[in-house]
Amino acid sequence: MRKRPAALGGLLAAALVLVPGTTAHADTIRDRQWALDALHADQVWSTTRGAGVTVAVLDTGVEADHPDLDGNVLQGKDLVGFGAREGDEAWARHGTAMAGIIAGHGHGPGNGDGVLGVAPEAKILPVRVILEDKDPARAKARSTRGNALAEGIRWAADHGADVINLSLGDDSASAHPEEGEDEAIQYALRKGVVVVASAGNGGEKGDRISYPAAYPGVIAATAVDRYGTRAPFSTRRWYATVSAPGVDVIIADPDHKYYEGWGTSAAAAFVSGAVALVKAAHPDLTPAQIKRLLQDTARNAPAAGRDDSRGFGFVDPAAAIEAADRLKPEGLEAAAYGDEYFGPGPAAESPGDDTADWAAPLAGGVGGVLLVVAVVLWRGRRESDTF
What is the DSSP string of 180-203? Predict the structure, then answer.
């Protein structure tokens, strides 16, 4: 099988675009985290907050000392071996953002400030497999560490990961499946590790297939906004499993400021956090069982039950945990693709299928459309960045 010519096996962090904007007070950060309301997080947290579960974040690295993550980040692995280092501007920005979405616990009195993750008591296992987009060393990556993703998946599976978050992918014109990556994912699944990946940000660029999202057994996350509408950038393909927040997402940064961004990378992180909650409540569930539970309990499913833009609907960890309580251990089938889907599916056209049924629960009481602005806390402003 031919090798990919692109950086680090063609992998890029699924775009998370940050836009500079107005200064905000600390107490508004939590108010802007609409995704937690959409995920019914408070309902789940009465049962579990993710304690006992480890989520491996295969990304650009994670700042372990960030105040919203302090104590939740385990000793990880750097499989890149060059490029930016801690303290550099191009260090661990995307990975820290994803870790905060998954397991941020906030900071300050009562942890009431900063970013709160979906599973704030889960642990993060950082595995550096890609460089930041603005890392000056990216040019070297074209001939170096092309197998970092496959190695990282196996390393995480062998070092205590219960969930692997892959907020990255290759959806270039030359993208194709890599045997080593596929085998690594199947290895992790056989060890009981759930694998979640971003569906891709090619919705306005031809909806090209993105790997690793398209590998069998992966839970692929597409992005929607606070009203449940598919984000225009979110790739539409047969492998879409569930949708999650991917627009106007509050993220933590190593510079100790907060930004709003968008991308299916964020959607994957929210799904990984949801999986961590399900896994904490039901640790014996297999990856296939968890994938099936998320599909069967997703809210606001498309009219036909599933489509390529939102999968089976909006991920609902509370419903999945409740359904798992009723599961019988026998008679469960592996949750792979089921019927084959080819090409991008049409975006939902019916208002009832797209927004009307669930605009209110996702909006969380906030009227109108929130402008895309950065939320900057503590220090000045950073220039606009694209991940």
Answer: HHHHHHHHHHHTT-EEEEE--S-T
